[in-house]
Write a structure and sequence with these properties.
It is built from 1 helix and 10 strands. With 146 residues, the chain is mainly beta. The chain has one domain. A hairpin with a 2-residue loop joins strand 6 (92-101) and strand 7 (104-107). The protein is globular. Mean pLDDT is 84; it is low at 3-23.
C-alpha cells in the first residue's frame, strides 16, 4: 500500500515539475529624447540584478541596438552595455549606469575603467548630471523582432 501511494506521489510530482511555466512580460519601457534622436530602454530588475535591451534611433536614418546587464545597489544600476556601432562589424562593450529616481532614470557618466575585460565606472568618477533622462514609455514595438 505504501508503494502505491509513494509511486502516485512521485508521478504527481514529476507531472507538476514538467508543466511549462507561463512567463509574463516583466519589463519596464523608457525613452529619452534629445533633438531628433531617441534612445529606448527595455528594462527588467530582479533580485539585485538588472538587464534589458537598448535602441538608439538617430533621427530617421539608422538604429543602433544593444543589450545591457548589471547589478543594483539601492537606486543605482551599474553594469555594461554591449552594442554594435552603426556601420561596424564588431560589438563594443562600455560601462553603463542608471540612477532610478521616481519614475525616471538618469544615465550616468564618468571615467570608464576596464578590469579583466569588464568596463565599469569607479564610484568616485560616476555622476548623474547627464543630459539623457529616461521617462516611462508605452512604445514597445521598437523592440519587436520584425
Amino acid at each position: 500500500m505504501h508503494i502505491k501511494s509513494g509511486l502516485s506521489f512521485l508521478i504527481i510530482l514529476l507531472v507538476g515539475a514538467c508543466q511549462e511555466a507561463k512567463v509574463e512580460d516583466q519589463y519596464s519601457y523608457y525613452q529619452a529624447i534629445e533633438n531628433r534622436d531617441t534612445t529606448f530602454l527595455r528594462l527588467q530588475i530582479s533580485e539585485g540584478r538588472f538587464f534589458g535591451d537598448y535602441v538608439f534611433a538617430k533621427g530617421n536614418s539608422y538604429q543602433v541596438r544593444g543589450d545591457f546587464k548589471g547589478e543594483t545597489a539601492g537606486d543605482t544600476l551599474s553594469g555594461m552595455l554591449v552594442y554594435t556601432p552603426y556601420g561596424h562589424k564588431n560589438s563594443k562593450k562600455v560601462a553603463f549606469a542608471l540612477l532610478k529616481s521616481g519614475d525616471k532614470l538618469y544615465e550616468g557618466k564618468g571615467i570608464q575603467t576596464i578590469y579583466m575585460g569588464v568596463p565599469y565606472f569607479p564610484p568616485t568618477s560616476l555622476s548623474f548630471d547627464s543630459h539623457r533622462i529616461f521617462t516611462p514609455s508605452e512604445n514597445q514595438r521598437v523592440f519587436s523582432k520584425e
